[in-house]
Design goal:
globular, Cytochrome Bc1 Complex, Chain D, domain 2, two-stranded antiparallel ribbon, 11 helices, 3% strand, 2 strands
């Protein structure tokens, strides 16, 4: 009898282990969507942004922007069933209340393993190039499938298996038909829908954008001083350029280390992220080493390390790091300006929220 019970117990353990990857951490409710799709295709950009913010990927033919494709992309973004173990969605590492960044230093993947880099914030992605910290993707449609295929993040390493999996889920045939005209599911269509949803996540409802047309009359004296520092003494805008406050075409070494454990795109070069919503997206840097904006500014003020590949804006002709020498008031003013780039409405926008 004892032997029989032991064998039965062992069989149960084995069965449970085999089924582990198919068990969801959190059961998903049926998807809830409005009868009429939300308006995703009209970005309603302020006048000062219409000529500087242009979609960076092809939107012709089947890729043409539509509310139906973005709606599908929203469901895909939040659906844990896109992962091998049905446990992790894109949204598991990108939280709306945090400007679609991860407040944790590293993100938990579908098996509980941690990523090696901090998850970047997501906004205005359709207007950017060089995706990921190491710039390994050139555009958004190329980027969106990579986390799904990553063995740590979502585990669907063979992308061709994903369409068959989604086709068995009751809400996807109708969503794909609405978006593309028939229920055929392909990796390319998944990529298009996700890219369109991400490109619709436009964040421009900030104090900065409100004040731009009339010379920032809505700014306090502290915020005005911070903007002046940003553009002159601190020279933040040499890398964080334009209305997106990023560098869409370059990677750079900012002297975080003398020797890098993670070399990024090579020689310690990493993407220059946008500063929009920076108040919400801590921790900072590719490895999430800084918890506060004060720490970030102090890095540039006194903590830059000498490195052969150090950005030329951060060094003197002899290659030595340049210190900003900001006093306490100037640091406070600079942070006050950075907080004018926060878009609170973006973090509450129903169009970008979890539909499950």
């Amino acid at each position: 009898m004892k032997t029989t019970l032991q064998l039965l117990f062992a069989a149960i353990i084995l069965l449970t282990s085999c089924q582990k990857e198919q068990i969801e951490k959190t059961p998903r409710l049926p998807v809830k969507l409005p009868v009429t799709p939300y308006n995703y295709s009209n970005y309603n950009l302020p006048d000062h942004l219409r000529f500087t913010m242009r979609i960076r990927f092809d939107t012709t033919g089947e890729n043409r922007l539509s509310d139906e494709k973005a709606t599908l992309g929203r469901v895909l973004f939040y659906d844990t069933k896109l992962s091998l173990s049905n446990s992790t969605a894109c949204a598991s590492c990108h939280f709306q209340k945090n400007g679609f960044a991860d407040p944790n230093q590293f993100s938990e993947g579908h098996r509980g393993e941690l990523t090696t880099r901090n998850s970047m914030a997501l906004s205005n992605m359709g207007f950017q190039n060089l995706m990921f910290w190491d710039a390994r993707a050139n555009n958004l449609p190329e980027q969106v499938l990579m986390p799904i295929e990553n063995h740590v993040e979502m585990g669907m390493e063979v992308r061709e298996k994903l369409p068959a999996k989604l086709a068995k889920i009751d809400y996807y045939p109708a969503l794909f038909t609405s978006a593309f005209g028939d229920e055929t599911i392909t990796p390319e269509r998944i990529s298009t829908a996700l890219a369109q949803f991400l490109s619709s996540m436009v964040s421009v409802r900030t104090k900065f954008d409100e004040g731009f047309p009339d010379g920032f009359s809505n700014f306090s004296a502290l915020e005005l001083n911070g903007r002046e520092l940003f553009e002159n003494k601190a020279r933040c805008n040499t890398c964080h350029k334009g209305q997106l406050f990023n560098s869409s075409w370059i990677v750079t070494n900012i002297g975080l280390d003398k020797v890098y454990a993670d070399n990024g795109a090579g020689f310690g070069n990493f993407k220059v992220p946008s500063l929009r919503n920076i108040e919400l997206t801590a921790p900072y840097m590719h490895d999430g080493r800084f918890q506060t904006l004060e720490e970030v500014i102090e890095h540039y003020n006194s903590g830059i390390q000498r490195h052969p590949a150090l950005d030329w804006n951060l060094r003197d002709p002899q290659g030595n790091p340049v210190k900003l020498n900001l006093d306490d008031y100037e640091k406070t003013a600079l942070i006050a300006f950075l907080k004018t780039l926060t878009d609170v409405e973006f973090t509450k926008d129903e169009r970008f929220s979890d539909p499950f």
